[in-house]
Design a protein that fits this description.
The protein is of the alpha/beta class. It has one domain: Rossmann fold. 32% of the residues lie in helices and 25% in strands. The protein is built from 7 helices and 7 strands, in the order αααββαββαβααββ. It has helices at residues 3-13, 17-21, 24-34, 73-82, 120-130, 152-162, 172-177; strands at 44-48, 65-70, 89-92, 105-111, 131-142, 183-192, 197-204. The chain has a 7-stranded mixed β-sheet with strand order 3-2-1-4-5-7-6. Strand 4, helix 5 (120-130) and strand 5 form a beta-alpha-beta unit. It is globular and about 45 Å long.
């Protein structure tokens, strides 16, 4: 997985992304998570890896100050077309190297992004950097099971699945441990496919 390959993968994926990830169990789960997001009108919200804008469709986006970034110009173009009459600012940007100032946002939504970027540690670190103190990161993604080693099947499948632009073996616990002095976990729920997908909410304390 690298940026160049991801652009190729998501150029192709942009043509069918909504048909798979914005329907069925994915849509049901996303509705359950994001329609209850506690955003307020005076807060700045950043969507990291917005894709085709599927998560934006679930909120009253006109009520908020929203910036949305994605590294794939093809995915971003889909999102822009959906919300062309909105005030949402769409930017083509690498989530591993954001150009925003420190502590720019009150909320960050990280939906299905930490499992697809080449370096999840850099991406998570950037989210923390641009998040205000007492701000929150809302994470919906797939992670390896807590305190369990990957099964042999997953170990064998992992390199092949990564060719499709996603990693099934990343550990949130490892990711969090490198930043635990700056964050507290407010919520960690298993939400889909027997806990493979989790909804995690963290707050920046330092």
């Amino acid at each position: 997985m690298n940026n160049t390959w991801n652009k190729i993968i998501y150029k192709v994926g942009s043509t069918f992304y909504d048909k798979f990830f914005n329907t069925g169990i994915f849509l049901k789960t996303r509705k359950r998570i994001f329609q209850k997001a506690p955003f307020q009108s005076n807060q700045k919200i950043l969507y990291v890896g917005i894709g085709t804008g599927a998560d934006l469709e679930l909120i009253n986006y006109g009520d908020f100050d929203i910036t949305a970034i994605d590294y794939s110009p093809d995915m971003l173009a889909k999102a822009k077309r959906k919300f062309e009459h909105s005030s949402i600012e769409f930017l083509e940007m690498d989530a591993q190297n954001m150009t925003f100032e420190d502590e720019s946002f009150d909320y960050i939504v990280a939906s299905l992004i930490l499992s697809v970027v080449p370096d999840e540690n850099k991406c998570f670190g950037e989210m923390i950097r641009v998040l205000k103190k007492d701000g929150r990161i809302l994470i919906f993604d797939k992670f390896a099971a807590k305190n369990q080693k990957l099964t042999l099947t997953k170990k064998l499948l992992r390199p092949f699945i990564s060719i499709l632009g996603t990693d099934i073996g990343r550990s949130f616990e490892v990711l969090f441990s490198k930043n635990k002095h700056r964050l507290n976990i407010l919520k960690d729920d298993q939400v889909m496919l027997r806990g493979m997908y989790r909804y995690i909410e963290v707050i920046k304390v330092n």
